[in-house]
Specification:
Blueprint: H1 14-23, H2 30-37, H3 43-56, E1 61-63, E2 66-68, E3 76-84, E4 90-94, H4 99-102, E5 108-111, E6 127-134, E7 143-152, E8 157-164, E9 170-174, E10 184-186, E11 198-206, E12 213-223, H5 230-237, H6 246-254, E13 264-265, E14 272-275, E15 284-290, E16 300-307, H7 318-326, E17 330-331, E18 336-337, H8 342-348, E19 356-366, E20 372-383, E21 386-389, H9 390-397, H10 409-430, E22 441-444, E23 450-454, H11 460-483, E24 489-491, H12 497-508, H13 522-531, H14 538-548, E25 553-555, H15 579-592, H16 605-638, E26 645-654, E27 657-662, E28 668-672, E29 681-684, E30 689-692, E31 698-700, E32 704-713, E33 718-723, H17 737-743
Parallel strand pairs: 5-7, 10-12, 13-20, 14-21
Antiparallel strand pairs: 1-2, 3-4, 3-6, 4-5, 6-7, 8-9, 8-11, 9-10, 11-12, 15-16, 16-19, 17-18, 19-20, 22-23, 24-25, 26-27, 26-32, 27-28, 29-30, 30-31, 32-33
Length: 763
């Protein structure tokens, strides 16, 4: 024990202090030490002297008022996310570290909690506050950490288009809408060989005297000579992995077709695939037949077979690591970034007609009322009888069969549609959330330019496949729960109370209400949607109800699916493009003891919770990238139409202005509040409206408008409109209590931030 000279009465020894500092997981400073040891009054001066002595002796270090042992990571540390390892996990290093005294900074492997909040999901280049602990691992990384809060996003690097300047160097056009107009200057010696039109990553700096923004090209990401390369912007801006590692590609190429060994032979079952006309992979097939069991009159046997991806993508393999890193496939108008290499997704796991393919299948007994009475899973070998697309199948049922579908009508298509009619009855009784929000589809010319934007018709063929898949997903969740095998659920929480209250306030402005004092069900929202159908409020109410809903996600703990009104639900039907489905397949293999390619016995809910957080974040990343690419393509399409007028509706109202969605293309654009008129406008939150402070002129979510296109920025995917039509002049409803509290403020035109409308959540 170190001898303490002249230790004041009531103070702990230095060893006691060191032991306390090393044992605490949170903040440790003089205040925490004094509280723990009961040090008061004049003894606090002695404590400060002891701590100063310990720092001078090099026995403790202090960073931002936190004490810890030198050369060791404190329990809470500021760290920079430096890289991803080969398994796709984030690796961080402490922001401050004395390399001269302690050597290279320790690496920290980041673990994501089961239900990660937005502030707990980080990416490479971010700075975060971590809670760390030392692990028993013998490898080079001996610390793990969990994100307490992301402190700073990676803002030092900007993605943009390089434009050459005569004489050398260039300027950068940022791809981020928020940075529109904030061009960066690139000096000739900082261009790194970038050519005009290149997509580049630039490290930002500022001129020390003028403060003018400038930068240095750090990476050339590709050329954007045509719209065909527009998706590259989203891929790089969101950090979407798009090139497979060599070991994953090699593993895919070495894979051999599955054999019939340990499988049931279902090759005589006339299963068919029904997909979009442009689909490249076909991983689900369906079949239905009338049930001959006298105990189930009017019932059906419905079969859903899904490609057996788990046979080829084994746990901890190179393909598995790559699939987890990607989380899901990402679909752009001009390309697909697949979760798995084409050898797997478009070949071995594509249920091609007349070709033997391995599958997991569920055979479900459905009553005449459409309710599932029983089900059983099987590991099988199938041979698809036909490959159809939605419009083709629908046309055959509607009396317009072609050469391929004519012979399929009596034995395959009619039983499928009869089974769907029964299942639809059960679906209607269940009453899932029934939002009517059509989605747009971009059709490209051969050169990658936009041909037109369409809204595909929703056919019964689409609904048939959707309901069959939902039924199979429910069966998977039920089976795994009964077998007590951990799984990943697809969950959707009920709306937050604040969102419900906001919706209730809005509905009161149009003479409608939501019940109070009871648990809300999807049927409550459907009642509202039904009342406004084919009225002037239909589009408006659908938008507002959508915004009140939570976002669906993946989780290892089940809390049901509110939107589908289901108690348990798991994604089983597309393991080619979703990692969650692959986990469910492995869990089913483990539950039925079908082989050694199932979910490892060591996998527990905690591990699945972390995977769920990762793939939920990957899904959100993909949705944002897909949406932004569509916006950029449409902005390219609209460049030649600046000055033209369009019809549309207000899709968002904010303090900063109005968002407008055009009827013709579904394009989204912005009208700054500063251009609305010669008066101040007030944002009424409950009404989703901007209201003139003098005239009372009102521009409200859902209002029909005529606009003129003023500006199109293709790189950022941004459109700016001028409003040509007048707003309504009805007396605005009384402001809500929340607005009086300051949520809706009297502001000068053009101020505030804006956020585009959300799209339909994925189920």
């Amino acid at each position: 024990m170190i001898k303490v000279q002249n230790k004041p009465k009531g103070l702990p020894t230095k060893d006691d202090l060191l032991a306390f500092v090393g044992s605490q997981p949170g903040k440790v400073g003089a205040r925490e030490i004094a509280r723990h040891f009961g040090i008061k009054g004049g003894d606090r001066v002695g404590l400060k002297n002891m701590l100063r002595d310990l720092r001078d002796e090099g026995r403790v270090e202090q960073r931002r008022k936190r004490l810890h042992h030198p050369g060791q990571l404190p329990n809470v540390v500021m760290a920079d996310i430096a890289e991803r390892d080969r398994d796709g996990e984030l690796i961080a290093v402490p922001t401050e570290w004395d390399e001269d005294a302690h050597g290279a900074p320790p690496k920290i492997r980041i673990h994501i909690p089961r239900r990660a909040r937005p502030g707990e999901v980080a990416g490479v280049g971010d700075r975060a506050l971590l809670r760390t602990q030392e692990t028993a691992d013998e490898g080079p990384i001996r610390h793990s950490g969990r994100i307490i809060k992301v402190i700073d996003r990676a803002k030092h690097r900007v993605i943009g288009i390089f434009r050459e300047i005569p004489g050398g160097g260039g300027r950068l056009l940022p791809v981020d809408k928020k940075r529109l107009g904030q061009e960066l200057l690139i000096a000739p010696d900082a261009a790194s060989g970038a050519a005009d039109g290149d997509l580049v990553a630039v490290d930002v700096s500022r001129h020390p005297r003028t403060g003018a923004a400038s930068g240095r090209v750090k990476e050339r990401l590709g050329s954007l000579k045509s719209e065909r390369a527009v998706s590259l912007i989203a891929i790089h801006a969101h950090g979407i992995p798009h090139e497979f590692k060599r070991d994953a590609l090699a593993e895919a190429e070495e894979a051999k077709p599955a054999s019939l060994e340990h499988r049931e032979d279902w090759r005589q079952v006339p299963l068919v695939t029904i997909d979009p006309i442009d689909a490249k992979d076909h991983d689900d097939a369906v079949h239905a037949i009338a049930d001959t069991d006298p105990a189930n009159p009017g019932g059906f046997i419905v079969t859903v077979a899904i490609a057996d991806v788990a046979h080829y993508v084994r746990p901890h393999s190179a393909l598995d690591r790559e699939a987890l890193l990607r989380g899901n496939s990402v679909y752009f108008p001009d390309r697909v970034v697949p979760m798995l290499p084409e050898r797997i997704s478009n070949d071995l796991c594509s249920l091609k007609p007349g070709v033997d393919r391995a599958a997991l299948a569920v055979r479900m007994v459905v009553g005449a009322d459409g309710r599932k009475r029983d089900h059983a899973f099987h590991r099988v070998m199938i041979r698809s009888a036909a490959r159809l697309h939605y419009a083709q199948a629908q046309a055959a049922i509607d009396g317009r069969a072609d050469e391929a579908t004519e012979p399929l009508i009596p034995t395959i298509l009619e039983p499928l549609y009869m089974a769907y009619a029964a299942i639809k009855r059960a679906r209607d009784d269940r009453a899932p959330l029934d939002l009517d929000l059509p989605e747009r589809k971009i059709l490209l010319n051969p050169d990658g330019t936009v041909d037109r934007v369409t809204t595909p018709e929703r056919l019964d063929a689409h609904r048939l496949i959707e309901e069959f898949m939902i039924l199979a997903n429910v069966a998977a969740a039920e089976t795994l729960e009964r077998a007590k095998v951990p799984l990943i659920y697809r969950v959707h929480d009920s709306p937050a109370l604040e969102k419900v209250e906001g919706l209730r306030e809005f509905l009161s402005t149009i003479g409608m209400s939501l019940p109070k004092g009871q648990v809300l069900r999807p049927a409550n929202f459907n009642h509202i949607l039904h009342r406004v159908k084919e009225t002037e409020y239909e589009k408006l109410v659908n938008e507002v109800v959508l915004r009140s809903q939570a976002q669906a996600e993946y989780a290892a703990a089940n809390y049901g699916h509110f939107g589908l009104n289901l108690r348990r639900y798991a994604h089983f039907t597309s393991p080619i493009r979703r990692y969650a489905d692959l986990i469910v397949h492995r869990a089913l293999i483990r539950a039925h003891r079908w082989g050694r390619d199932g979910l490892p016995d060591s996998t527990d809910p905690t591990a699945l919770g972390e995977i769920s957080a990762r793939i939920s974040a990957s899904e959100r990343r993909a949705m944002a990238a897909e949406r932004e690419t569509v916006d950029r393509l449409i902005a390219h399409f609209m460049v030649d139409r600046i000055g033209a007028t369009f019809e549309g509706h207000i899709s968002g109202a904010t303090r900063a202005g109005l968002f407008v969605k055009l009827d013709e293309t579904g394009a989204d654009g912005f009208i700054p509040a500063s251009t609305l008129g010669n008066e101040y406008f007030r944002y009424h939150e409950a009404e989703h409206a901007l209201v003139g402070s003098v005239s009372g002129e009102t521009h409200r979510l859902g209002d029909r408008v005529t606009v003129r296109l003023v500006e199109a920025a293709p790189v950022a995917g941004a459109l700016r409109f001028e409003l040509l039509s007048e707003g309504s002049h009805a007396k605005p409803a009384r402001r809500s209590a929340r607005e009086k509290g300051g949520r809706a403020t009297h502001f000068q035109r053009g101020q505030g931030k804006h956020k585009p409308a959300r799209r339909r959540p994925k189920r």
